Amino acid sequence: MDEVTNLNQRFAIHGHLSFEAGEDGLLMANVQNMHAQAEIMLQGAHILTYQPADDAPLIWLSPKAKYIPGKAVRGGVPICWPWFGNYESGNPETDKNFPAHGIARTAMWEVIDSEKLPNGATRITFALLIDEAAAKLWPHPCALHYIVTVGRDLIIELVTHNTGSSPFTITEALHTYFVIGDIDAVQVSGLEGCAYIDKVDGFKRKTEPEKVKVTSEVDRVYLNTAEDCVIEDHKLRRNILVTKSGSDSTVVWNPWAEKAAQMADMGEGSYRGMLCVESANAAENAVTIAPGHHHSMRVVYAMQRG
Ligand code: TA6
Hints:
The chain has four helices and 23 strands. By secondary structure, it is mainly beta. A nine-stranded antiparallel sheet has the order 6-7-8-9-23-19-18-13-16, with no helix packed on it. The longest helix has 9 residues, at 3-11.
């Protein structure tokens, strides 16, 4: 029996969820319910699209996204785990063998549960398959579950279970690309007064004095903030509410023109229509999980019409 048939027999839900082989044979979960539609690739448990029924898409996907087995897709919600950014053990020689943003976003995941909820939303639970190569990079007994609820809001939870006998420390991010009307007409509130690492300015530590506006490349890791954020889009006349728990960092990123032009999968000028606001645990907000315990990072994306 082929994998698509197997997935549909075990997890498809009429009027909610089905599975197919998408681009380049990559397995896809397609959600279509009364509230919204979404597409989730089983590689990386990568949410590619999410659009509320009565609104424009919320999640941005590059017009030049490439679907290559084992490679991250530009856009959607890449899962950065069990490290965010470049791996830093202090040994540059070995660190270059570790992929940026960890192993989860390019690994195969399996579906372990699917459910239609009383409120009409669809919930799918994924579990990371850690193969031999990945286990060499991350030799800690663990389980990683990813619970995606597609409804009027998009609710995502990433749960790391320590199934071993020693503690381990992770950094992580839901590296979400949001659709915006135009980069000149958007600002992010909720980070005022926060300390941040400015990756565009020598990783200097600074303090955010006001709402975040983007007028050039922005790559900032805001620290020690459990605050919710609002992406205020004055062109699309909507706010996107980012409500989080289990996350003490928020990353804001836009590559701007020069960096975007160097990225084959970004598309000419497409940086103007996207902004990453990433709920994370990064830098000194790394999370140590004791044996037998787990850590959950959860986020809710909700649309608010202006
Ligand atoms: O979250 C921002 C960031 O860490 C940037 O530094 C940039 O590298 C971005 O992620 C995209 O990374 P990727 O590996 O997906 O090209």
